[in-house]
Hints:
4-stranded antiparallel β-sheet; globular
Amino acid sequence: MSGCQPVRRNRQIGQDSPVPGAAGPRAARAPLAGLAVLAALGVLGGAGCEAPPPTVFDGPLPPRLVPVATYDGSGQAVHPDVVRVDAVPGGPFWLALTPYPQSDEKLENPCVYRSRDGLAWAEPAPGVNPVVPRPLFDHNSDPDLTWRDGEFRLLYLETQRREYRPDSASFHLLRWVRSADGVGWSEPETALRWDLDRDPLYLSPTLVQAPGGDRVYLVDGPGRRIVWFPWPVPAGDPAGRPEPGGTLETGLSGVRPWHLDVFPAPGGWVALLCARGPDATNNADVDLWLGASPDLERWAFRPEPLLTAGPALLDTEAVYRSTGLVAQGRLCVWFSARTVPGRWIIGATSFPDDAVRELLAAAGAAGMAQTPH
């Protein structure tokens, strides 16, 4: 046969999961439509066409720096969240994060990037970032990016403390914006509002499609627990502060949760938990733990951190919120961390997915052992 044949890209994360609904909002199911889209993605061509470039999943990936051009020019960023979407040209990898130069929260506004290989990132169009500008008072933080029903959904937190406002109000908002192409974004909508004088300080939202309905996980920092709320939040009164629908139990004695990401994988879901260990001496002494669940109810976590700050991890002193994907027999992790000079960086590394499969099996076995016969 002459010429090139269409090259099939990797199936989306979680698409083959046996758990109903496990594909999750990160697993874009919408098929590529039309030769024009295929050509735009580089999967069709004539005699000179090329296969898609290697990605982060094509072999071992020791820890490496992932440069990102932030809108403020610092190149310092935190809170990465990665999703694979084959249905939108310019990917398939999409990333949300916030700049955080020298821990300046005023610049912590959600931004998005796209990449063909998961390592070289660029704005989807010039001037897109920040997707959400700084509020009039206080700051934004903690973005979470998903793909669901033909659109990106970007969740984030907006903090409003009275010391930064002209009135006495003190509250916290879970907000979100949406986009069909990663370039044009809707106006923010508020999903939940908390009174900081009486409600917990929730951190690090992560939106997950669950068998019984979507849920958004949040970390109750002061309470040292992980909770989830139904998504979308019941309509009518976003200030009603519904009670959490449940908790995520890690089983890690003395480990204090700080930031979390949950994403689908073949056979279930994976959690990457940024937390303070039992021996942590201060709030900045945080590492990254790995967990997995076949059904979002039964969880198993590795007793030791997956990533620990230090000279071997790009000369870092703290590992912050991280994200990941599982494909081609590997777990790829994009992490944020603070270096010894005090700069915030994004890095990437990968592991064989053996640990994920072992944790899924352990969580399933534990659930079977607890089931009465």
